[in-house]
Amino acid sequence: xxxxxxxxxxxxxxxxxxxxxxxxxxxxxxxxxxxxxxxxxxxxxxxxxxxxxxxxxxxxxxxxxxxxxxxxxxxxxxxxxxxxxxxxxxxxxxxxxxxxxxxxxxxxxxxxxxxxxxxxxxxxxxxxxxxxxxxxxxxxxxxxxxxxxxxxxxxxxxxxxxxxxxxxxxxxxxxxxxxxxxxxxxxxxxxxxxxxxxxxxxxxxxxxxxxxxxxxxxxxxxxxxxxxxxxxxxxxxxxxxxxxxxxxxxxxxxxxxxxxxxxxxxxxxxxxxxxxxxxxxxxxxxxxxxxxxxxxxxxxxxxxxxxxxxxxxxxxxxxxxxxxxxxxxxxxxxxxxxxxxxxxxxxxxxxxxxxxxxxxxxxxxxxxxxxxxxxxxxxxxxxx
Length: 384
Fold this sequence. Notes:
It contains 14 helices and twelve strands. The chain has helices at 6-35, 41-51, 53-60, 67-104, 109-136, 173-186, 203-207, 210-214, 229-234, 237-246, 273-276, 284-287, 307-312, 332-338, and strands at 139-147, 156-161, 190-193, 223-225, 249-251, 255-259, 263-267, 297-300, 317-320, 344-348, 351-355, 373-381.
């Protein structure tokens, strides 16, 4: 660890301790008020363990079974705790302020705390329940687009897109089966996976034999993927590519595929490659240098950070993910400021740009203000 990061890590750690203490204090005040309990130590120990359960799970997921399964459980609990932390920080200060105002109006403290605390608890529970449903109940979001080019013998093309699947400890075979089912119903000609297929470590993907489930995905024109930032974070690029190849999914790393002499699928390395890959990543201009640009150009670029260059270089359709649309509102206000397009569709010159909120999730299995989604794109090729 570089010395310059130590102060930053120390500050972050102290902030996390403070946040968890604040949540724990409010929880104990509420619990002790309604139950009459007076020994806070067991409650504090439980909150303390939960607050570090993600770290326990992250380090323990590399152990052998049965310790690995226990670690998976810790990581799952810790993932939910991230959501509890975020929404507690939005709810509890308001609740504490209301309690203080009620006591100024001579309302009994215990009465005020139980009334407001119950309302806060119900609101938090409602957020977690609805957010869980949004996360595990994917929808198919359709787009019908026209590209003014000839695509060989194709007059139209249906593409199924699933970004940010994040297969790992939290997202597993059950959610992956939902993707397979929806793709079977969609019957796409082509399936594209614009990055973050796995969630950091490849070990849960292997231990849970997710390749067998993912291998059920079928499309007559093939299945192609690109690397996302999480594949680079995990650092198992070669192993990941080999796993994908074994089930017929080709990972494009600054590579281009001409499909049936009709249209191109271009796969860029993630932006992370600039500092994580010794070869870096190529600009879009170099990727298309030797292509017949009279044919449709379909680009997968995990992060939607290069739409301007995609438009200037004649890309017809760009597909990205990464943002999750913030995953949990109001985080979308941040992603909206960072990216030109953080979710949905935008026509930029002749470029059709689509950014998905993703099929899976990172961290909490919670989505609020976003949904688990699969993109269905019906392309029509028309020349004037």
